[in-house]
Amino acid sequence: MAEVFYRKWRPKSLSEVVGQEAITKTLKQAVTQGRVAHAYLFCGTRGTGKTSTARIMAKAINCMSPRDGEPDNECHICVGINESRALDLIEIDAASNRGIDDIRDLSDKVRFSPNEARFKIYIIDEVHMLTEPAFNALLKTLEEPPAHAVFILATTEAHKVPLTIISRCQRFDFRRIPIEQMVAKLGDICAQEGIEASHGALQLVSRIANGGLRDAENLLEQVFVSYGSTIDEDDVRQLLKLGGDEMALELVGHIVGKSVSEGIAAINSTSEQGNDLRQLLRGTLEYLRSLLLIKTGAGAQFGYSDEVAERLNTLAADTQMEHLYRVLKVFAGVNMRRDTASTLPLELAMVESAMQPERAVVAAVAAPRREAAPQAAPPPPRYAPPPASPPPNSQPYRQPPRQSQPQPPPRPTRVAAEAPAGAPASMNGELPAQPAARLEHQWRTITWALRHVGTRFMLGALLNSCKEREVADDTIVLKFAHRSNMERIQEELDNPESRRAMDDAVVKAMGGSFRIKVSLVNGGNSAGTQSASQRSHLVLAAQAMGARIVSEKEDEQR
Ligand SMILES: [Zn+2]
Predict the structure, then answer these.
(1) What distance in angstroms lies between residue 9's CA and the mean position of ligand 1's atoms?
(2) CA of 69 to the centre of ligand 1 (A)
(3) Which of 65, 132, 134, 367 could cross-link with 103 by S-S, CB 3.0 to 4.6 Å?
(4) 78 CA to middle of ligand 1, Å?
(5) 549 CA distance to ligand 1 centroid (A)?
(6) How remote is the CA of residue 189 from the centroid of ligand 1, in Å?
(7) What domains lie within the chain, and their CATH numbers?
(8) What one-character-per-residue DSSP string does 221-237 give?
(9) How far, in Å, from the CA of 118 to the mean position of ligand 1?
């Protein structure tokens, strides 16, 4: 690579500076109106555009034909600065020893007139690094600046610059560049370099760079050099070996941002790279806890690097205490002791953490029985279970009867379900005594009751794809034509909340409790009736969320 990205794509005019619109607007006006100050102080974290802006200012101030406060980048002054051979632009890096000598030198030489430009521009980078004698020399110069000199001081640590210096400067605070602006800039670079990078890859690069464009550009270049001109998120992760803690921090970003699909992708990527998911969970919990502590003001020293600490502070500022508290509880409830390779517990937690608060509370509190809600309750919000109002003559929820016990005869007639407004007409009237016939009669009542229930899928909608139903003793078998539908139903029923809503709906419609099984229409019932332990990752995840295993007993008994 002939030229590194951040130099090559450095902004050449004020309007090209990314993310600092307020500052560049003011500077343009100053140039246009001929009101250039003798000393500027540019503060801000690394890579936010301080020195780039300083160089553009050097051009704008001296340009032979500026336009709207911008340099033309064509005259010999501008070209000289762009090619780093301008005599009247003196750049000093205060972080090096030579910088300090330069300052001593400076107070002598600043009196001489510029060589070819109107102004001599001194850019002093990392000015906070100057020694006390050097600061004193600088201060003397700033107190009586020659008319032909402009000083632009840049620092990442403004609090280390003496107030006597600061008070003589016009100060600008450069903000961290917002992610989307950084992504857009990186996108431009990619387009011009012929790089195809996914949006996710650019977002990840930007997030890691934490508001510093130069870091982001360097990182993009590294990925490009290592992986070629097609770049996706995994390339970035692999390059940075984003395992363990970095991955956890990324995941926490998705959790706070409620970005479910990105979160799930991050979990899977961790797993695919062979990283320990328990480590990911530990790291995630630790970061979430730190966020909570920052939020409560108890933020002691966590021993994080400056970069991580800054990132956590930003995340804490972006989130509400209630949300943090909730997601921390969700992730603290993840149990990975038995099946450490399954991504599902973490994925479920990711989904749950992004849910509406009222729903997550319902999920967290495993109430065995619901209180009756007033009949005039407002319609349930989307994704929330409908208000449970058991029919007056219904029984309380019971565990399904055991096989060894005599099966109570199904309650015969007159189990009139209450029809919510807009419910199907078939809900009322006399019910057939035969369970199978009754199930068909009540089927729409059941699907209607479950129309808003579901964690990932709406149970009501899924049940509409049920082709055939069988009732045998105390078991209802739901048969599906497509395996995917069957598996979705099974996944939903593995969720205790959905399972409870399903059981409630069946009790209500059938007048008694039934086991629910799923299977395929054409004999392929093995997948539907396999034991709970065969679905281990689902079951473990469900158990982690408070589920009870019913079907395993049942299989043992048969
Ligand atoms: Zn020019």
Answers:
(1) 19
(2) 11
(3) 134
(4) 4
(5) 77
(6) 24
(7) 5-173 (3.40.50.300), 177-240 (1.10.8.60), 258-365 (1.20.272), 426-558 (no CATH)
(8) HHHHHHH-SEE-HHHHH
(9) 12
Q: What is the pLDDT along the chain (558 residues), one digit of tens a residue?
A: 446 888 889 999 999 999 999 999 999 999 999 999 999 999 998 889 999 999 999 999 999 999 999 999 999 999 999 999 999 999 998 887 666 777 778 888 888 999 999 999 999 999 999 988 889 989 999 999 999 999 999 999 999 999 999 999 999 999 989 888 999 999 999 999 999 999 989 988 888 787 889 989 988 998 888 888 899 888 887 777 654 577 888 899 999 998 999 999 989 988 887 777 887 888 898 889 888 888 887 654 455 666 777 888 889 888 888 889 899 999 988 887 767 778 888 999 999 988 876 554 444 443 343 444 444 434 444 444 444 443 444 444 444 444 444 444 444 333 333 334 444 444 445 677 788 888 888 888 888 778 777 776 678 777 877 888 888 888 899 988 877 778 878 888 888 888 888 888 888 888 888 888 888 887 544 443 333 343 444 445 554 554 544 433 333 333
User: Over 23-34, what HEC string results?
Assistant: HHHHHHHHHHCC
Collect all residues with Cβ–Cβ distance below 8 Å to 534 and sequence separation of at least 6.
none
For the chain, count helices (H), then strands (E). Answer: 25, 10
What's the gap in Å between 552 CA and the centre of ligand 1?
A: 80
Spatial contact of 454 and 494, defined as CB atoms under 8 Å apart: no
Helix (H, G, I), strand (E, B) or coil at 92: strand
Phi-psi region of 194 (alpha: psi -120 to 50; beta: other; left: phi over 0): left
